[in-house]
Write a structure and sequence with these properties.
The chain is mainly β. 13% of the residues lie in helices and 50% in strands. The protein folds into 2 domains: 56 residues, no CATH class; 342 residues, membrane protein fhac: a member of the omp85/tpsb transporter family (Porin, Beta Barrel), CATH 2.40.160. Strands 1-2-3-4-5-6-7-8-9-10-11-12-13-14-15-16 form a 16-stranded antiparallel beta sheet, with no helix packed on it.
Length: 406
């Protein structure tokens, strides 16, 4: 009797053990990459080995992250909205070392007719210096590219450097001083296709800037530290580029006219005119030459927050953000973009820019060169993560970003 009872217990325990192993085999693959089909034909003695192999094949966290980014640039035609997350440390001269996170999405509004790929990025950045920034930006293309929209909403707290509001003060390194800027920017551009590659539409702009903790108030020359700017205008463009954010051929001629009248809440009336000419040409299968000429002029009582800066076009990457500013800015850059291997590429560029209040002020002393080298990694299809190191006149800068600068 005792022997029969002990045998009964052993049989039940063995049955329970096999059941637990089978459950483990079914559940674990849900967290890994490989699915293992459990068949009744597998001998009981082999179940332990199958469970052990399943655990061994389960990738660790580092491997899963590598697999995630390895798959990030593959096209997914079955997905209506393809989103990828990117995060980690980054650096810029104005914000120092920071942590950044980006959620980048790609989508097409139509697959039945040829339509450019729309994109949207939601980003957040922060550093131990007190800098933080959150925002969203993107480009939206309607079916057949008959309508396009470009937008950005940005909220930031910047501990920054300031050198003054005239070129001689800005050029003098001894004038470097600290201040903190609170910034909110919200703008949108809407364009309808009039004929083939010709687009026209309205734009709006809201900008709030406030300077606090100002170390050297005399450099501000009596400017109001707190500025609200409300504007509207239009955008006219002729665009033959094959891809808006990473073109390999074509050109884009763009004119932006904005008005900031007193009637809608501005303290002082002013206006601005901005022109950009970008040309792209593929000289060989893996190399693209890009050229950009950019100019921005303002007239009226332009507040300090709305003055064009040398880095406004993003193509001049060799100077501290916002150091050189005036009522007018002009720059020209030529850049070679070379694919190297798989998802890796390099760029080299050379350019020249200047800021001025009046044309007669332009001279050799005011011309600010920019040249440098950058690394590109294809984060998503035709969406690059960029790292640039730029050199200028008594200046250098390192910058990280998403998409090409122009």
């Amino acid at each position: 009797m005792t022997h029969t009872f002990k045998q009964f217990i052993r049989d039940k325990w063995h049955s329970l053990s096999l059941s637990c192993m089978a459950l483990t085999i079914v559940v674990l693959p849900a967290y890994g990459q490989d699915n293992i089909a459990v068949s009744d034909s597998i001998p009981s003695a082999d179940l332990t080995k199958v469970a052990t192999d399943s655990i061994a094949k389960r990738p660790n966290l580092i491997k899963r992250i590598i697999n995630y980014f390895d798959d990030s640039n593959r096209e997914h035609p079955d997905k209506k909205f393809d989103i990828t997350f990117l995060g980690g440390p980054s650096y810029s001269a104005s914000t120092s070392l920071q942590i950044a996170a980006v959620a980048a999405g790609l989508y097409r509004t139509s697959r039945a007719v040829p339509t450019s790929e729309s994109n949207i990025s939601v980003f957040a950045q922060g550093s131990v210096t007190g800098f933080y920034r959150v925002g969203v930006k993107g480009n939206h293309f309607s079916p057949g590219d008959s309508f396009r929209m470009k937008y950005q909403a940005d909220f930031a707290h910047f501990p920054l450097k300031f050198w003054g509001l005239n070129f001689e003060n800005q050029y003098n390194d001894d004038n470097e001083s600290d201040y903190t800027e609170l910034q909110s920017v919200f703008w949108g551009e809407f364009q309808w296709r009039l004929y083939r590659h010709l687009y026209l539409g309205p734009s709006f702009n809201f900008n709030y800037g406030k300077a606090t903790r100002v170390e050297s108030p005399w450099l501000w020359e009596g400017e109001n530290p707190r500025i609200f700017s409300y504007g509207f205008g239009f955008v006219l463009s002729i665009d033959t580029r094959d891809y808006a954010t990473n073109a390999s051929c074509g050109y884009n001629l763009e004119l932006k006219q904005k008005f900031f009248p007193k009637a809608i809440g501005n303290k002082d009336a002013f206006s601005s005119t901005e022109f950009t000419a970008s040309i792209y040409h593929k000289f060989w299968s893996s190399g693209i030459m890009a050229f950009q000429l950019h100019g921005w002029g303002t007239y009226g009582n332009t507040p300090w927050t709305m003055l064009p800066t040398l880095d406004e076009s993003n193509s001049i990457r060799s100077y501290y953000e916002g150091r050189y500013r005036a009522k007018n800015e002009i720059d020209a850059v030529v850049e070679l973009r070379q694919h190297i291997w798989r998802r890796n590429g390099l760029v080299v560029w050379a350019g020249l820019g200047t800021v001025f209040d009046h044309f007669h002020e332009i001279n050799g002393h005011r011309l600010l060169p920019s040249y440098g080298i950058g690394y590109r990694w294809e984060f998503k299809k035709r969406v690059n993560v960029r790292v640039d190191f730029g050199m200028g006149k008594h200046s250098h800068a390192i910058g990280f970003g998403l998409n090409e600068t122009f």
